[in-house]
Specification:
The protein is elongated. A hairpin with a 4-residue loop joins strand 15 (530-535) and strand 16 (540-545). The longest helix is centred in the middle third of the chain and has 45 residues, at 256-300. With 796 residues, the chain is of the alpha+beta class. Helix 5 (206-236) packs antiparallel against helix 11 (383-418). The strands form four sheets. A nine-stranded mixed sheet has the order 17-18-14-19-13-12-20-11-21.
Length: 796
């Protein structure tokens, strides 16, 4: 951005703070012990930059004048006054129009530095402080930062700087507004702080935004309905008893209004006691949860949660609880006020039996005996308590399976956004072949290393006919017809050469014969057909074939060479590669994947032949799997085998993202546990009440000769019927909700729908165990009842 564009940004109402960053140049750092970091580079910030770029001072102060700087911790021995010969980085063998900033790694060829400094000038600075490594520093940045003060007047028309802006109002329109503004003032397409915006619930992709809001809506609806249903059921448990009590009041002259008010007053008393306790318990529970998960958050997001109790959330909680109590109390009150005293005392509203209503299928008696037939009739006869128990179980099943699938969908989405990553550490080694082989041998023999693969890669272009394009590419070409060359699509081809052992193991793992691929004269390759890419236009991650090819098909790869006589670049054929096998399995390593790209795996001999033909420089990467990535990285650094900047710990980043999912799962599963405890309490209470009210019935059955064994069988059958009915409703509803989550997730991530069978089995077992335990517990309370005394009781 230039001076005019900076002025437009500062005058715009769209932006709040504007931090400026400008790189002034690079200088040799002779004392560096890292061969991939031979420089120091000077970066200047304006006043706002020092306030907003999260620089952490170790000692001293921030610079305030043009000759003052602060240095990173690695440069503490550089002295209080430094003289630098600063210039621009230039690599002679590559064409690059832009400035090689700190974002570009050191350019090397065959292990040697292949870039130099040009336009060198001398400059002097006074060191006034030491700062920890800034956030903009990458592991591959080829130098250590020196940070100075930027006067905005230095940004003349002929110079540029990077601007980091914060907006006044963070909402979904930020992407369109900033893009429109940038286009209006002639700025390049802006980059967004996606991590921060995601914390606000915003993404650039409309489909991703739809996915986020859709998933949040589904989860919230499940939670709200589940909560209201369970709280309502807890009131509905004693509907029969309340109706009878109100009917007795009616018999001594109580009016409808008085009966309704007595129920409302009961709800008021419950609310006055329960709501304050619930708010205090909820706040305490969230505080305990955040206390324990902040360790995870600090490593995952380099931040921590601070609990803030807002007045709005407290009032909403009070209102929702009061509304739930009102709904839960008004129904039995209205119902009791509309029936006569005789009906209420007889509970004729609760039990209205007909022969048809309690009739059971003859198959039930054949399968389960008379005990099973009695059990099913009992459930039909006590329909309301049966409904309360079953609905509590259904809600618990739905909550558990739906939230479990939601967490699984998050993990699947995270995996797809990472791509086909199958290694933990990648190590770049720029040494000669003997040194490289020795280092690889030492690394793989370390205790914490499991397996490794040495990959060499070169890239080419090949023209692919339309009949070989996958569907996604065909659709893409329709909007970019000018990109074609003679009607063919120019594919990016990444040719990977594995080391001998890794290649042999890989070929064997896909069921092929190694001997078919090792002859350098035949240049036979393995095509990895399946790719995972981000469709930016559709705003989703997609799994699809890279190219429609068959075994024995051939591709002629070509590369761009510079013709010195004609002074231009043109493509020339390098080699014709035959497809010897097709697989969806990738070997160990990183592979470039997008529509219009393909990955070909070849043996070491074939790769060497191709590389010699092309003359391209080699880039050797060692990919390692390990159960202890941090320990392995520390061991490598302690042995000084490899420069720290050459090690990329992908496992650490994946773990950080996985910890975010873990934190979300803790909240979700914590809520499931709370709701499930309420549901279990409802179930136990409902069954206990039902058993207590049926004491005379049980005594009557025993009095006419039902044996203890038959009695217990009847009770166990009732438990099983409770569970089966709950599963009959709960499982289909849960599967429907899971599919809704899947469909919503398809807006951003395309993958096949699968049922979580393990969670379904857990739900089935848990439901049956809960109802059986609840029934056994309830029966234990009436086990010692005397038959004669129980039959004498008029009511309970």
């Amino acid at each position: 951005m230039n001076q005019a564009q900076l002025q437009a940004i500062q005058e715009s109402d769209l932006f709040d703070d504007v931090a400026l960053l400008r790189e002034s140049g690079y200088a040799e750092h002779g004392a560096s012990t890292d061969s991939l970091k031979p420089y120091v580079y000077v970066t200047k910030l304006n006043e706002t930059g020092f306030e907003t770029m999260q620089l952490e001072l170790v000692e001293g102060r921030f610079p305030s004048g043009p000759d003052e700087v602060i240095v990173s911790e690695q440069l503490t021995d550089i002295g209080s006054e430094i003289d630098l010969e600063m210039g621009e980085r230039v690599a002679e063998d590559i064409t690059f129009d832009g400035e090689r900033t700190h974002a570009y790694a050191l350019h090397t060829l065959n292990g040697e530095r292949a870039e130099r400094l040009t336009n060198v000038t001398e400059d002097s600075f006074n060191v006034v402080g030491v700062v920890r490594e800034p956030l903009w520093q990458h592991s591959w940045t080829p130098g250590y930062p020196i940070i100075g003060h930027l006067d905005e007047g230095e940004i003349a028309d002929g110079s540029t700087a990077m601007a980091y802006m914060s907006v006044r109002d963070v909402d979904r329109t930020i992407y369109d507004q900033v893009s429109t503004f940038a286009e209006g003032v002639g700025l390049e397409q802006p980059f967004y702080n996606d991590s921060l915006l995601r914390a606000h619930g915003l993404t650039a992709s409309d489909n991703m935004q739809t996915t986020l809001y859709g998933l949040m809506a589904i989860v919230m609806v499940i939670i709200v309905i589940g909560s209201v249903a369970l709280i309502f059921n807890s009131f509905a448990i004693s509907v029969s008893e309340r109706s009878r009590y109100l009917g007795m009041l009616s018999s001594v002259g109580a009016t409808k209004r008085q009966k309704r008010n007595s129920v409302y007053f009961e709800g008021l008393i419950i609310g006055l006691i329960a709501i304050p306790i619930g708010i205090v318990a909820g706040v305490a529970g969230i505080w305990v949860t955040t206390y324990f998960i902040n360790d995870l958050l600090s490593s995952a997001l380099d931040t921590e949660l601070i609990m803030v109790v807002s007045k709005e959330s407290v009032f909403i909680s009070i209102g929702l609880a009061a509304l739930t109590i009102l709904i839960s109390t008004i129904i039995p009150a209205l119902r009791a006020s509309r029936i006569t005293a005789i009906d209420a005392i007889r509970q004729s509203q609760d039990v209205k039996l007909t022969k048809k209503k309690v009739k059971t299928n003859s198959l039930v008696r054949k399968l389960f005996g008379v005990e099973g037939d009695f059990a099913l009739k009992n459930l039909k006869r006590n329909n309301k308590r049966y409904f309360v128990t079953v609905s509590s179980l259904v809600v618990s099943i739905i909550l558990f399976l739906s939230i479990s699938y939601f967490a699984s969908a998050l993990s699947q989405s995270m995996h797809m956004s990472f791509g086909n990553q199958n290694y933990d550490l990648s190590i770049q080694v720029d040494r000669n072949d003997e040194e490289f082989a020795a280092i690889v041998d030492q690394v793989l023999n370390m205790d914490s290393a499991n397996e490794g693969s040495v990959n060499r890669s070169v890239t080419f272009r090949t023209l692919v006919e339309p009949e070989r394009w996958p569907e996604g590419l065909t659709n893409q070409v329709e909007d970019n017809i000018d990109y074609l060359m003679d009607g063919n699509y120019p594919y990016h081809v990444q040719v990977i050469g594995l080391d001998a052992n890794s290649f042999s193991e890989y070929v064997t793992s896909i069921g092929e014969d190694v001997e078919r691929f090792i002859d350098a004269d035949e240049t036979r390759a393995i095509l990895v057909s399946e790719i995972l890419y981000e469709d930016t236009e559709a705003g989703k991650y997609v799994e699809a074939p890279s190219v429609l090819a068959n075994e024995n098909d051939t591709f002629t790869v070509e590369q761009e060479n510079y013709d010195e006589e004609r002074e231009l670049y043109e493509y020339e054929d390098v080699v014709e590669l035959e497809i010897g096998a097709i697989t969806n399995d990738y070997p160990l390593g990183y592979f470039e994947q997008w529509l219009g790209s393909m990955v070909l795996i070849v043996s070491p001999d074939v790769f060497e032949e191709i590389q010699m033909e092309s003359g391209q420089p080699l880039y050797d990467m060692l990919y390692v799997t390990t159960d202890q990535p941090e320990a392995l990285q520390q061991e490598l650094e302690d042995h000084a085998l490899i420069d720290e900047s050459a090690i990329h710990n992908t496992y650490a980043q994946e773990q950080r993202d996985q910890q975010v999912i873990t934190v979300m799962s803790i909240f979700l599963y914590g809520f499931i546990t709370l709701i499930s405890m309420i549901a279990i309490a409802n179930i136990i209470n409902t069954i206990s009440t039902s058993i207590a009210l049926r004491r005379r019935e049980f005594a009557m059955l025993k009095s006419i000769g039902m044996t203890p064994r038959s009695f217990n069988k009847m009770i166990y059958f009732e438990s099983i019927f409770y569970g089966l009915k709950a599963l009959l409703y709960g499982l289909p509803i849960s599967i429907g909700i899971m599919y809704s989550i899947y469909i919503t997730n398809q807006n951003a991530f395309a993958y096949a729908f699968t049922l979580p069978w393990l969670e379904i089995i857990i739900a089935i077992v848990a439901v049956l165990v809960i109802v059986i335990v609840a029934m056994v517990y309830s029966m234990s309370k009436i086990k010692k009842d005397n038959i004669i005394e129980t039959l004498k009781q008029e009511n309970v």
